[in-house]
């Protein structure tokens, strides 16, 4: 579903608050790293034990990114590293680089293994299996890219994920946050470059719907509570919340049904999202008003000139011409229009101011 990232250079109390906030919305996995250069080693060792304990008490777990640099950075032998993680209650390790297939197999005896997706090809898969690893029990996690213009393309992500699925891996990828971004670049931490400047909720849906991703991780320091609420609602209830602007609802009866939960038709259109219930529930004839051009994202209601379609609420997915039979009630915010294509057969949606 959804995971978060924490960075031990941040204030420990703020980290705990973020863990608590995200935990309310089903987050179980918490990514952090033990080989990035910014972290102070002794302070990090103290903090990671405290945070691991805090997360485990809330039925959440740290997923620690390690490499062979971790051993030298923290002055640990391979065996000492394993014992350290076991003692502080770590259950998942993301292996970045430097460890042999035999060492990864040894680590897998004690921890769930997550591999860096950028290191994996057909040859490496064969080597892992020869070393005794069961690929069906391994997750692969794509990188995030702090520098702008360095994130991977949609085509590359899908091509790699098809290979991973064929081999039996589960797949993770990153999206940027929308509250506090992580330095030193403060440019977002996405896997896909095209996700760098789009809403976090949209980036989540796109990864889950289009790219064979099993779990999405927010790469930045934090995301807004509203974003967690929308993602949780989408995941649990298969419902998309749409934010509106410039709404003008002329009658109480229309307003009564406008703010209810809607559902798109099973035989969905590529031009409009159609509420299945509104024209059945709205019984009075609706007079024509505001029958203007329908820009993409317009929320409309058919008036009495449309006969039996009177009362049907729609959202336009593309620009449509003016029609005397169709009243425009308002529009969804421009950054929300891209969500409409994910409201497919029987998908629920709600409209919010």
Automatic annotation (TrEMBL):
Identification of the protein by name: MupG family TIM beta-alpha barrel fold protein
One Pfam family matching this protein: MupG_N
Ranges for domain 6-phospho-N-acetylmuramidase C-terminal: 241-351
Species this protein is from: Helcococcus bovis
Coiled-coil annotated residue ranges, if any: none
The 6-phospho-N-acetylmuramidase N-terminal domain, residue ranges: 2-231
InterPro entries with a match to the protein in the record: Aldolase_TIM (IPR013785), Cyclophilin-like_dom_sf (IPR029000), GH (IPR017853), MupG (IPR008589), MupG_C (IPR043894), MupG_N (IPR043797)
Gene3D superfamilies found in the cross-reference section: Aldolase class I (3.20.20.70), Cyclophilin-like (2.40.100.10)
